[in-house]
Amino acid sequence: MYTTRDIPLFIVEEHNEAFYAWNYAIKKGLIPESSNALLHIDEHSDMNPARFKNSIHGLNGNLGDIKRFTYSELTIDTFISAAIYRNIFNKVQWVRQVHDYDGSAQSRQMYVRSCNNEGKKLIVGLRSDAGLHERIDKDIIIRYFEYGWTNAGKIAGHPQTILDIDLDFFSCTGHPGKQTTLVIEISKDEFDRFSADPHHRLKYFFSRVSVSASDGKYYYLINDYDEIYQERTYVSTEMISNRITELVAVLQREEITPLLITICRSRFSGFTPEDQWQFIETQLCSQLSKIYPLDPVSLSQL
Question: What does the alpha-carbon distance between residue 186 and residue 211 come to, in Å, rounded to a whole number?
Fold first, then answer.
């Protein structure tokens, strides 16, 4: 049943910042420090194994250190595996508009550990891996979790649910790197090296890299194309409104009362369309406020 306690709502710009919001909430006693269930509503799973320059073992609860780690070590597709390794979650449910199957709820028992127990390179695998316990020492930190995926109509609740919504769930540009050109200024020496070397390493890191010169300055152009092909994941505002209404109706029907809500805009990365993110956020917050007593807080206010 719903309670009268205000539910903290943190709005973040990019999704790695949710890691800081969750740790902040733990520090302030808003959510338990472990055994939470993440209800991840997003066009993308964001479940890639994280790799760090500095060990995640160095985090001791200091919010300043956690914030620096969030921005210097985490990416928008590795923050969940890091949170699982920190033992914040033992259950993750990924909700997407269209999965590559019939839409019925699926789940697996999985684990996260780090290579050599260093806390620098995370490894995600199936718990059923027959040789897992033979390969790791008993002192190795290993986190077991349940991972599920489904569509909005099959959402399941949990007593310690953390609701995490990316605005690109409702409308997505597709791959933003292929929709806009990234321009990086470089030296003339690098311009000459790239131009002269047909096997320059950068030609294998991106789908297209070229160079240009203008007014005595030199640039890398990442994904420089003349045409933009609209992805099917980009939908009309009418469809967005329908999707928001449907999602909120399911949350209400299943009596899912989250301890905390994070909403990610994904506008700077370009996954949420520039011409739609504000509309989506306004409509979503308005609909959520009809079923939850919300306490909205921007990450910049923390």
Answer: 9
* Residue type for position 155: I
User: d(Cα 71, Cα 15) in Å, to the nearest integer?
Assistant: 11
Q: Which of 168, 169, 200, 199 is nearest to 274 (CA)?
A: 168
Encode pLDDT of 73-108 as tens digits. 999 999 999 999 999 999 999 999 988 766 566 889
- The residues, ordered by sequence, that sit 6+ positions from 283 with a Cβ below 8 Å of its Cβ are 240, 241, 244
Tracing tokens 């509309």 back to the chain, one arrives at 279
Pairing of strands 260-264, 7-12: parallel
Tokens representing 182?
Answer: 């990234």
Question: Nearest CA to 74 among 9, 21, 29, 115?
Answer: 21
Q: Which residues of the chain have pLDDT under 70?
A: 1-4, 101-105, 130
